[in-house]
TrEMBL record:
<feature type="domain" description="Phytocyanin">
    <location>
        <begin position="36"/>
        <end position="140"/>
    </location>
</feature>
<dbReference type="GO" id="GO:0009055">
    <property type="term" value="F:electron transfer activity"/>
</dbReference>
<feature type="region of interest" description="Disordered">
    <location>
        <begin position="146"/>
        <end position="175"/>
    </location>
</feature>
<keyword id="KW-0732">Signal</keyword>
<dbReference type="InterPro" id="IPR003245">
    <property type="entry name" value="Phytocyanin_dom"/>
</dbReference>
<dbReference type="InterPro" id="IPR039391">
    <property type="entry name" value="Phytocyanin-like"/>
</dbReference>
<protein>
    <recommendedName>
        <fullName>Phytocyanin domain-containing protein</fullName>
    </recommendedName>
</protein>
<feature type="signal peptide">
    <location>
        <begin position="1"/>
        <end position="18"/>
    </location>
</feature>
<keyword id="KW-1015">Disulfide bond</keyword>
<feature type="compositionally biased region" description="Pro residues">
    <location>
        <begin position="153"/>
        <end position="168"/>
    </location>
</feature>
<dbReference type="Pfam" id="PF02298">
    <property type="entry name" value="Cu_bind_like"/>
</dbReference>
<keyword id="KW-0325">Glycoprotein</keyword>
<dbReference type="GO" id="GO:0005886">
    <property type="term" value="C:plasma membrane"/>
</dbReference>
<dbReference type="InterPro" id="IPR008972">
    <property type="entry name" value="Cupredoxin"/>
</dbReference>
Amino acid sequence: MAQLFSFFFVLLIAAAESVQGAGAGVGLVPPVPIGKRYIVGGADGWRVPPKENKDMYIKWASSIQFFVEDSIEFMYKNDSVGKVNKYAYYHCNWTTLAPTPPVKDGSSLFLLDAPGFAYFASADVKHCKKGQRLMLNVKALPAPVPSTDISSPPSPAPPAIAPGPAPGEPVMDSGTAVVASSHGRALMLVVSSTTLALMGTIRA
């Protein structure tokens, strides 16, 4: 008996340890990234557009619908990129009006964190004037669609109401009904006693 109890105790401890191990494994799952990530220019990357395709980045941006929380990555060599304002984008003028300084590490990632137009350009003025600049129209996140699933149970049906008396029919409440029933039983008892007494008299 003691050995059987010990066996079940060991099984219980092993089950508890396996549950704890499963919980620890769940905590190690990395979070899912928010939004989509795009490589600017696709396979062409970030470079000076050819003369015959100077508006290549305008075409690339027009083929994608960007939303807040998306991100764009610039891949380039011996070049630079930075986020600029509208004036710097159209005039290729890197001044104090540019929101961020240019970066030159070969890979630059920018988060689209606000709706509206976002502007990017190469810090090399000659490259910018040759079309190495990008303008995006970032849209706000769409509102969530309300759920049409009705999970609440249907409301119970109202209790049935007994039909009322017909016109001209006397109404009798419960007290009156009990008294009438008692009187009827007493009357039946008297009639039965009288009948038995009469039958005895006749037989005698």
